[in-house]
Design goal:
By secondary structure, this protein is α/β, with parallel strands linked by helices. It contains four helices and seven strands. One of its GO terms (biological process) is phosphorelay signal transduction system.
């Protein structure tokens, strides 16, 4: 199995406020065989989108900090519906609110193999 084949056929929502990071992430996800949904860079837009389009994606990559707003409400919504997601952050684990420390996290710059493995169905 090649790098990232765990995502083949998946639909991954990208919520990232840095345009260049979002573009790179979208490219990696597409190379892994998944369809990219987004990217969306603003908290309000992302929360509205997930609530109105829950059948359009089956996984998500969430930047913790979206232009100064934390993405935790989006994470809560996804978790309540069993949608696999991973937080991304340019900071260490201590940057996450302790209530969210148990969720998967990849630090930027992230290792694509770790990101793909975390988003794959059946990942722990």
């Amino acid at each position: 199995m090649g790098q990232g084949t765990e995502l083949r056929g998946r639909r991954i929502l990208v919520v990232e406020d840095d345009f260049s990071v979002a573009q790179a992430l979208c490219g990696l996800i597409e190379e892994a065989g998944a369809k990219v949904v987004g990217p969306i860079g603003w908290f309000d837009q992302a929360l509205t989108y997930v609530k109105a389009n829950q059948d359009e994606f089956d996984g998500a990559v969430l930047d913790v900090d979206l232009h100064g707003e934390k993405s935790y409400a989006i994470a809560d919504w996804l978790a309540e519906r069993g949608v696999r997601f991973v937080f991304t952050t340019g900071y260490g684990a201590d940057a996450l609110d302790p209530a969210y420390a148990g969720y998967p996290r990849c630090e930027k710059p992230f290792d694509p193999r770790l990101l793909f493995k975390t988003l794959a169905p059946g990942a722990v």
